[in-house]
């Protein structure tokens, strides 16, 4: 009894192949400094957590498929901060941004349709497009241009009669790039002109360090084309609560999404209570969190800039950056760090970037680093990475590689 | 900007079309007695809820995609109660049974494959088969035979080269039927012989009133074919927690499911904590709950048996039964109860059964009644239904209908 072909072919996370090595490293007594996943180490807002813990309900019942009305209204109010005027009826609560992506793809696309995504992109987008039977047409962005949004011409070139949407992550995972108002407005013209959906994952919106965030929900001319993905996971360090949102003013899309939402009955109750309480903590909680990430970002930039042969840039948003390493193959190096290297009792785990590209070769020497560790741990991680790079490039490993 | 065809065509819940009428009824001041949905009114185990409320975590982080190991081990231990020996590695925690169904279908079927399901069946199965691009081949069960499992011949007749699985709900939603060990073992022979998956939704396993429950996980000959769907929603009145399970000893299927599980990152954290704590309350909590449902079941049976023209049977499990009403059209009657009828300030909402059939005509005079109300409310609901039936059949409405 074999599984389906699609079940076998579903893409796995870029770090999936490293996990057995990470387990072995832990078993061998190494401490791993995890720079490989977007799991913030910052505390979930304490007062919000206490709200969950005082739930008076005695039946944890099905809620509305659309999400708790009070939460949807609270989110609509929160968006005012970004000058977005939106009714709560245009906001659906989802089980994480993951489900918001799934609803968006199933509601906008039929099997065989195409979606344009700048690469590198968050690897799970690939899994969800596979699950919904649609094809990604990548448009490349480059390290050299600090992952700036591709030109309008590049997007035009990618369009076919099957194209239904352009999908962005802004600020970007994995690059830490914030797209400017001007470049989004340029893209909006194309979207309007070609009658496409513009789906934007804005889950890192709160972490913009140099310029302010501009949401595509603000672009009046494409009101009907825009779908925004959001989540409390990163903003409020609440990944395990599984609460996200999908936001659109397009009635047809809302109606289709509600059908998918009804199919899975409702989003998680406790997480919704947490989410609603989180928004009350914005003013107190978020400035501190943003400051912390920004300091880590600058520290990382400084350390990476000083490493021989390492090429980096100062990311402007989110808590990631993409780094070009002076190695033959970043995935092999990441594996080697787990299997063959230890520095003062620990090693570093990073995400090789090939998994973030359709054209894997583009990411061959790149890793994504998530700065989700405290500064003292980041310092250790950078010491370890620096020593690892030196050791790797002078180790017998290279001889072996050359011999292949 | 229109939604996808599949987004428009996705089946809706059988009660969906009644919801606007229910809202209008409430707005008009009527109290609705809800017999239409499987939302238990029983309290969530109190001690288990208190455990959630004392979560010490300060970062609500991503958990394992497979679910918390401690919870998976606890569920494996719970299954011993049903003489099921299973490793926790064969149990994945899902976001409700809904997600367990989704994972099962995507992992076993490719688009265009067929699945055999006895009808009437839980309406959301239809949505999930549509979402995964597979076709339901229904095998009918009948009120006259108290919805007994179809004969082996009927299943054989439904098999085509595209058939990948048989899907059951045992005990059954909507019929309240418990399938016997003997009939499941007969089916197992066919499953083995034809090399099919046997997917069984066992979420109502704890509510069997006359005979004891027998799980397909006990049938040794089809170890590799069986996939079981489970959930805490009904057993522990925790629908809003969104915690389910998928259980299989088939390694290929587990691997495919883990890929889908990784794609959505992890199941909800708080719900998992609640679930684990619920299993500690089994002995104290479940006997009382089962007793309560059984008493309601017998009361309903008695009342329905006494109503003129109503045909019913004594359901043996779950908290549903299917009732044949002396009306022209059950959906029209259910709507009429909301729009045109009031009895002592209230009315009754039921689920018309046509939505539980592929061949809608089979359910035309049937409704599903969920006994998820306290006995005093059930008494009111039965008084109201009885009066409603009399009024409906003597009202001008019928004249109108005949005139069409």
Describe the protein's topology:
The structure is a homodimer of 404-residue chains.
Chain A: H1 5-9, H2 19-27, E1 31-34, H3 46-52, H4 69-79, E2 91-94, H5 96-108, E3 114-119, H6 124-131, E4 135-140, H7 152-158, E5 163-169, H8 181-194, E6 197-201, E7 226-231, E8 244-248, H9 251-263, H10 269-279, H11 282-306, E9 320-324, H12 330-339, E10 346-349, E11 351-352, E12 366-370, H13 375-394, H14 396-403
Parallel strand pairs in A: 1-10, 3-4, 3-5, 5-6, 6-7
Antiparallel strand pairs in A: 2-8, 7-8, 9-12, 11-12
Helix pairs in contact in A: 3-10, 4-10, 5-6, 5-9, 11-13
- The number of distinct structural domains of chain A comes to 2
What gyration radius of chain A follows from the Cα positions, in whole Å?
21 Å
Overall strand count of chain A: 12
Kindly identify the CATH topology of the largest domain in chain A: Aspartate Aminotransferase, domain 2
**Structural class from helices and strands of chain A?**
alpha/beta
Name the poorly predicted regions of chain A: 398-404
**Biggest interface, and residues per chain?**
A-B, 78 and 78 residues
Please give the count of helices of chain A. 14
Q: Identify the overall geometry of chain A.
A: globular
Look at the structure and give the CATH class of the largest domain in chain A. Alpha Beta
CATH superfamily of the largest domain in chain A: Type I PLP-dependent aspartate aminotransferase-like (Major domain)
Side-by-side strand order of the widest sheet of chain A: 2-8-7-6-5-3-4
Proportion in helices of chain A:
25-40%
């Amino acid at each position: 009894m074999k599984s389906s072909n699609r079940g076998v072919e579903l893409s796995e996370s870029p770090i999936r192949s490293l996990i057995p090595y990470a387990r072995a490293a832990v078993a061998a007594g190494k401490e791993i400094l995890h720079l490989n996943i977007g799991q913030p180490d910052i505390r979930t807002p304490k007062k919000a957590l206490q709200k969950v813990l005082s739930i008076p309900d005695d039946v944890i019942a099905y809620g509305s498929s659309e999400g708790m009305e009070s939460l949807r209204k609270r989110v609509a109010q929160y968006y005012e901060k970004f000058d977005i005027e939106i009714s709560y009826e245009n906001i659906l609560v989802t089980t994480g941004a993951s489900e918001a992506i799934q609803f968006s793809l199933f509601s906008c696309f039929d099997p065989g349709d195409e979606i344009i995504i700048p690469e590198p992109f968050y690897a799970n987008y690939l899994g969800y497009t596979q699950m919904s039977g649609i094809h990604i047409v990548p448009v490349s962005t480059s390290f050299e241009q600090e992952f700036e949004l591709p030109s309008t011409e590049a997007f035009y070139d990618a369009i076919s009669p099957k194209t239904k949407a352009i999908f962005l992550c802004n600020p970007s995972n994995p690059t830490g790039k914030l797209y400017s108002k001007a470049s989004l407005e340029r893209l909006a013209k194309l979207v309007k002109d070609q009658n496409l959906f513009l789906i934007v994952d804005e889950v890192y919106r709160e972490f913009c360090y140099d310029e302010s965030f501009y949401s595509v929900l603000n672009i009046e001319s494409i009101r009907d084309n825009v779908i925004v993905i959001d989540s409390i996971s990163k903003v409020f360090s609440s990944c395990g609560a599984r609460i996200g949102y999908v936001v659109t003013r397009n009635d047809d899309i809302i109606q289709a999404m509600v059908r998918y939402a009804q199919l899975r009955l409702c989003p998680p109750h406790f997480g919704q209570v947490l989410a609603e309480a989180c928004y009350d903590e914005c003013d107190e909680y978020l400035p501190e969190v943003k400051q912390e990430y920004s300091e880590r970002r600058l520290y990382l930039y400084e350390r990476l800039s000083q490493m021989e042969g390492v090429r980096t840039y100062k990311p402007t948003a989110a808590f990631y950056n993409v780094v070009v390493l002076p190695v033959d193959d970043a995935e092999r190096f990441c594996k080697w760090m787990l299997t063959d290297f230890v520095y003062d009792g620990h090693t570093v785990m990073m995400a090789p970037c090939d998994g973030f590209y359709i054209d894997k070769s583009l990411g061959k020497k790149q890793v994504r680093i998530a700065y989700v560790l405290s500064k003292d741990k980041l310092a250790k991680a950078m010491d370890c990475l620096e020593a690892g790079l030196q050791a790797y490039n002078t180790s017998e490993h290279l001889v072996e590689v050359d011999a292949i």
